[in-house]
Design goal:
The complex is a heterodimer of chains A (about 375) and B (about 290). Chain A has 12 helices and 16 strands. Chain A is of the alpha+beta class. In chain A, a hairpin with a 4-residue loop joins strand 5 and strand 6. In chain A, helix 2 (about 30-40) crosses helix 3 and helix 9 crosses helix 10 (about 320-335). The model of chain A has no long low-confidence stretch (mean pLDDT about 90). Chain B is of the alpha/beta class and about 290 residues long. Chain B folds into 2 domains: about 10-120, NAD(P)-binding Rossmann-like Domain (Rossmann fold), CATH 3.40.50; about 140-290, Rossmann fold (3-Layer(aba) Sandwich). The chains are: A alpha+beta (about 375), B alpha/beta (about 290).
């Protein structure tokens, strides 16, 4: 779960991190009254609150030299889609004039099964770009979770960055605050990029927090409605509400598999044979006919998929259950609006295959044959 | 020989009275796994498929001191507690099937287990099987046969598919481990490889990886450093997965510039690993190196 910038900043502020003075405007509110009431003085910066990257380049961050100009900009930002989606909130902040742009983050250190602290003096662009352009500038530090990020460790990171002695303590406190947020909020990422230095103090100009979805039940305070436009599509939300793992993709061949690895491999197989998958849809292990039915119904309605490739290896999942689910979906939908190609192997494959064959559905033992036919039916390579 | 589980493995099933726990207890018993007891707090005194149920792991151990392994079918919110209980009872292997455990819980749990000398497999995994001896997991037993090839995998179904293809070609498996699909797991590729390196029965190893994290790169480094000397065939799922998206598994995500397909394949090939483009190529690649 990604938090909006204004939420992330309010969390950081409550942990003692300095952030620019600002006010959040929700769509439909009286922008002028809100801004005048906030007492913020120009210059101001208005920031579209969307959960996608590349907001700056897409025109989602604008500078205003007067309150009147800011009001005008805020209204325009509400109507300005970023990657297809208009924001529900705009954050207006006092513009902070600054020279330095640094980077700091706390994230999972998957390889060492610890927590990683990352810092660089060259922020303002994403970490991938820093790693490409100035790989030597990133300080990585691995933290023992049973000990936490101690002051001497945080100061050591500041020293390794090459910050002057007078700033090391302040930066260490900044990192320790990020670390505490990371732990307390069950985060996968707490990032400030950029942060800057104003009169010797560190200020988070931007902030990003991603909370582990598996832990969201422990954070009911974050349960505001989130419009994850651009990253979570309508179809993804729809499938997710049915308990299915679904990712929207750009192509025309609908893909259903059982198990994440096999479903990814099914996508890879579509590409390998010259097609482009329309989606990733994993029905998981041991799926019941009900689950298969739900998954297929989603793809039958999903307009991007012009054909459907179902790739099942039955281990715990029984092929006859899968066949039953396919047939039920077709019955409920009153026929197939698009061609379906089913590869069924494994437990009770004979039963499953003959059930589908009797209903006139193409069944395969070899996934390559199924994928070729599905690509052709979707309009070819 | 085999690794992690064999005919001396004696299991306690935690969460045995639940739907999944009870169902897979039946299947594991059918496979021949020695299950001595089950645990569900508050359900002590009952029986599931003839297996006695206790309120705690400690009580189960008092009656069945031969128990050395636990498998967990406990819901995500309660699973960390159950795992700590198994570790504190001194069990040497804890297999966590449960999906959806908060990653911060797993971080602390794995760290604790390491200090106590317990091996954790999972969470969010299919478990471990040594064909013909013991199955501590949810995999379909019939697709596996005994033989010289180890499999260590981040994906369940893909493992069954590959094992099935190997079996059809007459290539059996020594021990097959599904390490799980979460961002943080207990036993990882390199730790499994240390075990396979010492197992005389294993003549070759199949690594089934996927996008996300850097476990495959670490495996490659281990081979280059000469710490794993047996032939390795690999497959990485997710060649065409877009960055920033979670592909079914919580851990299958390219994030912060880490976890991409190309980096993994490049590292493995540099280490002399045969990387299959598609899983169907694996049996023929394996028969070449055996």
């Amino acid at each position: 779960m990604k938090l909006y910038e204004f939420e992330a900043k309010s969390v950081l502020r409550s942990y003692g991190v300095e952030v620019p003075a600002g006010v959040v405007v929700e769509k439909g509110e009286d922008v002028r009254a809100k801004l005048l009431g906030s007492g913020l003085e120009p210059p101001l910066v208005a920031k579209s609150q969307v959960l996608v990257a590349g907001r700056g380049k897409a025109g989602g961050i604008r500078l205003a030299n007067s309150v009147e100009e800011a009001v005008d900009i805020v209204y325009r930002l509400f109507d300005h889609p970023i990657k297809g989606l208009k924001p529900r909130y705009v954050l207006v902040e006092k513009a902070v004039s600054h020279a330095e742009e640094l980077y700091a983050a706390v994230t999972l250190d998957r390889g060492n099964r610890r927590v990683a602290v990352l810092a660089s003096l060259y922020g303002g662009v994403d970490i991938e770009e820093i790693a490409r352009e100035k790989p030597g500038s990133i300080v990585r530090y691995s933290v023992d979770v049973s000990v936490g990020l101690r002051g001497y460790e945080a100061r050591g990171i500041a020293r390794r960055l090459g910050l002057p002695r007078g700033l090391q303590g302040g930066f260490a406190s900044f990192l320790q605050a990020l670390y505490r947020v990371f732990i307390d909020y069950d985060a996968e990422l707490v990032e400030s990029n950029p942060l800057t230095i104003v009169d010797g103090r560190f200020v988070a100009l931007d902030a990003r927090i991603i909370v582990d979805d598996n832990a969201s039940y422990r954070h009911p305070e974050l349960a505001v409605e989130r419009v994850e436009g651009g990253e979570t599509s309508i179809w993804e939300s729809k499938a997710r509400s049915l308990g299915l793992a679904f990712v929207e993709l750009e192509g025309t061949v609908g893909v259903i598999g059982n198990g994440a690895g096999l479903t990814m491999t099914s996508m890879d197989l579509v590409y390998e044979h010259g097609g482009v998958p329309a989606n990733f849809l994993d029905i998981g292990g041991g799926a019941s006919s009900e689950r298969v039915k739900r998954a297929l119904l989603v793809l039958l309605e999903y307009p991007k998929a012009r054909s459907v490739f179902i790739n099942i290896f039955g281990g715990i999942t029984r092929c006859d259950e899968v066949a039953k689910g396919v047939l039920e979906a077709l019955r409920e939908h009153r026929g197939a609006p698009k061609p379906i190609f089913v590869r069924l192997s494994g437990t009770r494959e004979e039963e499953g295959r003959s059930m589908l064959r009797e209903a006139g559905i193409k069944v395969y033992d070899n996934p390559i044959d199924a994928v070729r036919d599905a690509i052709e039916a979707a309009g070819g390579v | 020989m085999a690794i992690l589980v064999d005919k001396n493995t004696v299991v306690v099933v935690q969460g045995i009275t639940g739907r999944e726990g009870s169902f897979h207890t039946r299947l594991m018993l059918d496979y021949g796994t020695r299950i001595a007891a089950g645990v569900t707090p508050g359900k002590g005194g009952s029986e599931v498929h003839g297996v006695k149920v206790y309120d705690s792991v400690a009580e189960a151990l008092e009656e069945h001191p031969e128990i050395n392994t636990s498998i967990l079918f406990v819901p995500a919110r309660l699973a960390p507690d159950a795992a700590y209980e198994a570790i504190d009872a001194g069990l040497k292997l804890v297999v966590i099937i449960t999906e959806g455990i908060p990653v911060h819980e797993t971080l602390k749990l794995v760290d604790y287990a390491k200090k106590k000398g317990t091996v954790i497999v999972g969470p969010n995994c299919p478990g471990v099987i040594t064909p013909g001896e013991s199955k501590v997991g949810i995999m379909p037993g019939h697709v596996f046969t005994r033989g010289p090839v180890g499999i260590v995998s981040r994906s369940g179904t893909l493992t069954y598919e590959v094992a099935n293809a190997l079996t059809k070609e007459g290539i059996g498996q020594s021990t097959v481990i599904g390490i799980g699909g979460d961002p943080i797991v207990g036993l990882n590729f390199t730790e499994a490889m240390e075990l396979y390196e010492r197992d005389p029965e294993t003549k070759a190893l199949i690594l089934l990886g996927e996008i996300g994290g850097d476990m495959e790169e670490r495996a490659a480094r281990m081979i280059i450093e000469g710490k794993f000397t047996k032939p390795v065939v690999a497959f990485i799922a997710g060649r065409t997965a877009p960055p920033g998206k979670r592909m079914g598994h919580a851990g299958a995500i390219i994030m912060m510039g880490e976890g991409g397909y190309e980096s993994k394949v490049r590292a493995l090939e540099k280490a002399g690993v045969h990387v299959a483009r598609m899983p169907f190529e694996i049996p023929s690649l394996v028969s070449k190196v055996l």
